[in-house]
Amino acid sequence: MMSESKDIEDAILENANNGNMLDFEAKIFLDIVRTDGLVIAAKGVNLDLVILNILKVYQDPGNLVIILNSTESEQRFFKEKLNYQHIYSEHQNGNEREEEYLCGGLHFLSTRILVVDLLKKRIPTDKITGMIVLRAHRIFESCNEAFALRLYRQNNQSGFVKAFSNSAQSFTMGFCHVDRVMRALFVNQLYIWPRFHLLICDCLKKYQPQVIELHIPITDLMKKIQTYILELMNLTVKELKKLNPPLEMQDVTVENCITKNFHKILQAELNMVWHQLSNKSCQLIAELKTLRHLLLLLFYTDSVTFYSNLLEYRKPEYARNTQWVLNNSAELLFKDSTKLVFTEDREFNPQFCPKWEALMELLKVEIPAEISRSKNENNTILILCSNNRTCHQLNMLLGSGPQHYLVFLALKNKIQFKRLSQAFKDCHMTIEETRKEDQYNELNKNIQYNDENAFSKEEDENTKFESTYILTMNDPIKDSSTDACNDQIFTPVADGDSINLKDISKTVCSPTILIQTFKGGENYISLQTTLEALNPNFLIMYHSNVTAIRDIEMYEAHNKNPGKLKTYVLIHAGTVEEQSYLTLLRREKEAFEFLIQTKAQMVIPSDQDGKNAQCITLQKPLDSSEKNTRQGGQVTAVEKSFVIVDMREFRSDLPSLIHKRGIDIEPLTITVGDYILTNDICVERKSISDLIQSLNSGRLYQQCTQMQRYYSKPMLLIEFEQNGSFSWQNQYMLSEDSNNFDIQQKLLLLTIHFPKLKIIWSPSPYATAQLFEELKQGKEEPTIENALAIGCDQDLDIIETKYNSSIYDFMQKLPGITTKNIHQILRNGINLGEIIKQSEGDLDCLFNNSIDARAFHSALHQSCIPEKNDRKEEFKQKKSNFGRGKLKRSRNI
């Protein structure tokens, strides 16, 4: 048996092209191929090669494999690596997808398309070989991915499910999050691969990259500004915790505030109680985000950009509603930030970013010297940044020089100064060019404003940042004694977007400088694939990034050519930049330690994989079958309950929760309503934001008009969020000139205009699913043909041509008028005046229903004025006389 399993593994590895995989990747591959499960790896430990080899194993027309949660760049990557054989992407036409499913192979689908195709039986569910789920940390009980997997497992107990994730911290948020994700995925095994795993350490240690870490000190003025901002953040955090003592806010600290995922920490801590926070607490959280933004600007941008952004927070419009601006540390912050840009006599002399000098020295001295020693003909230098704005900044810096760039920024941000300092004496031409450009842009704006045929305006320059910039060195060798910041030897490449980055060494003269973000271009799924495509000789990390460093390690381990790529890391030692990097490492390590401990204590049912009928997750609620005593106690068959759901509603969680309660879903493209429960009940679902938008635009009025025309029981469902407040509070209207009462007034007018419209208030999608089940009890099932026919253009034309639409809508609002008798009344009744004159008996013949006729006749002829009560009038008279007597006595006194 051992030899047979060994032979099978060897055959799988041979088919998967094991030569490109490292030892730990081969181990992950064999584990996940042998047994279904969830793989959680550290950031930067890319699983792309493992997933690619799994796809190679099942790349055959005899298999039908579905891949979920893949991005467009990942789809392009896998298609290119697999030579586009037996690979299909989703099509808008359902018939084309149905034919492609029968061809087998690999199918990249969106979750919404897959759910609809599973419900419509377009895909042969029992013939599916398996499903591969990427980004498994996004799976939760009510999401569409869990819905698709539940539909898959209900009809297929033999296929596989393999899930992957690179976000360990996401599994630590919430109670038993890993257990719930594995239950939704129908897997029993959990594979954990942190960076400190022994096998990963051994594989990456053999080919360690050549890394030179440059610790760049910041100026004394920047240290003071950093201290002021940290003091303000510390005071804000203390005040926030003081105002909310019952809340557990251990993770809301100054250390976590400077990390990249701070907004996720806030969301996890405060999302459940956000509606219970006071306005002051919400304002403190907003101030905390503002201070964090200033701290990032201090280290990731230049002095002019930081100063111009700081001035915005000193304006009276912002300062009157905040607390940190009035603090002593804030006053010192505003005072010292001026010294970053001006001298004492208001002379423009901004400080350079400390990393600029180190970057220029590398590009003009260190790297050219390495190129001359190596004597390589084709040399590529890759500079990595954290965002597109920094890429644009470095492109402008290398193309025009730091002095011209800072003067250009000052003029763009309209910073006023008396004169330029001696160091910026050569920038007068930049001032004139910028002023001419501003005048030209202002003229274009006026022309576009006056021209009626101008349909579009030019975008703001700030929105034109690209993710890749290309430059070349004109004179690569420079003497180290020259000032690195003053010489300009870099030329931007025109039409850089049209150049294929893989062939850049053949297209552009060497040496070439590429400036990119850590994510690279749109065609690359990770930095590792970017490095494999570009094959650079030198790499400069302008910002520190944990994932990028591990991508470089993975690239060197796969390349097996240590020393070819030389990496320089620029980091401000002893600052919040270094602390943020160390905090991310610590939090990831703690997350993996938590997962390892959870796995050791986890109790997983043997039937959780859904491959047998005893799985609790797949069991539907029992049908309440009734016994008929007249047929000898035989059980009568209960008709299958189903709900017609509009195709656009599959973006929400409600269809999944309805199906989980044992009610089948019939997806259709309907024009009236979102959910058809019966032939009489039509429901239009609105979230709070959608409700406000629909009321303001008038779209809800049209939708209610259509529902009342064709259904006797139209309903408007107002659904709140699962973790939000089930109350109408001020947080829904953010603007000061808006009022919640305006929305309530519009809702009141809606109910007056549509008296048959029922408004349902639901606290969550779970409550909505239960409510739908209760509304359907004891009622007939909806008819698919009627739902498709209602609201079509032909039906609307009949109403417009046969009847007066205003009279039609008015008659619908009267008691006794239903969708079943309105056409008969409008055809047989001459006009409204003649119908009013008829007696109740005549109306009974016209309505063919005595109850509806009595309701209609009573509404028109019965007096609605209440009868006078003599006792009440007498009591009111005595009360008024008593008041007059008391008044007379008080006057006499």
Automatic annotation (TrEMBL):
<feature type="region of interest" description="Disordered">
    <location>
        <begin position="870"/>
        <end position="893"/>
    </location>
</feature>
<dbReference type="GO" id="GO:0000724">
    <property type="term" value="P:double-strand break repair via homologous recombination"/>
</dbReference>
<keyword id="KW-0255">Endonuclease</keyword>
<feature type="compositionally biased region" description="Basic residues">
    <location>
        <begin position="878"/>
        <end position="893"/>
    </location>
</feature>
<comment type="similarity">
    <text>Belongs to the XPF family.</text>
</comment>
<feature type="domain" description="ERCC4">
    <location>
        <begin position="642"/>
        <end position="722"/>
    </location>
</feature>
<keyword id="KW-0234">DNA repair</keyword>
<dbReference type="GO" id="GO:0000110">
    <property type="term" value="C:nucleotide-excision repair factor 1 complex"/>
</dbReference>
<keyword id="KW-0539">Nucleus</keyword>
<keyword id="KW-0540">Nuclease</keyword>
<dbReference type="InterPro" id="IPR010994">
    <property type="entry name" value="RuvA_2-like"/>
</dbReference>
<dbReference type="GO" id="GO:1901255">
    <property type="term" value="P:nucleotide-excision repair involved in interstrand cross-link repair"/>
</dbReference>
<dbReference type="GO" id="GO:0000014">
    <property type="term" value="F:single-stranded DNA endodeoxyribonuclease activity"/>
</dbReference>
<keyword id="KW-0227">DNA damage</keyword>
<dbReference type="InterPro" id="IPR006167">
    <property type="entry name" value="XPF"/>
</dbReference>
<dbReference type="GO" id="GO:0000712">
    <property type="term" value="P:resolution of meiotic recombination intermediates"/>
</dbReference>
<dbReference type="InterPro" id="IPR006166">
    <property type="entry name" value="ERCC4_domain"/>
</dbReference>
<protein>
    <recommendedName>
        <fullName>DNA repair endonuclease XPF</fullName>
    </recommendedName>
</protein>
<dbReference type="GO" id="GO:0003697">
    <property type="term" value="F:single-stranded DNA binding"/>
</dbReference>
<keyword id="KW-0238">DNA-binding</keyword>
<dbReference type="InterPro" id="IPR011335">
    <property type="entry name" value="Restrct_endonuc-II-like"/>
</dbReference>
<dbReference type="Pfam" id="PF02732">
    <property type="entry name" value="ERCC4"/>
</dbReference>
<dbReference type="GO" id="GO:0003684">
    <property type="term" value="F:damaged DNA binding"/>
</dbReference>
<dbReference type="InterPro" id="IPR047520">
    <property type="entry name" value="XPF_nuclease"/>
</dbReference>
<keyword id="KW-0378">Hydrolase</keyword>
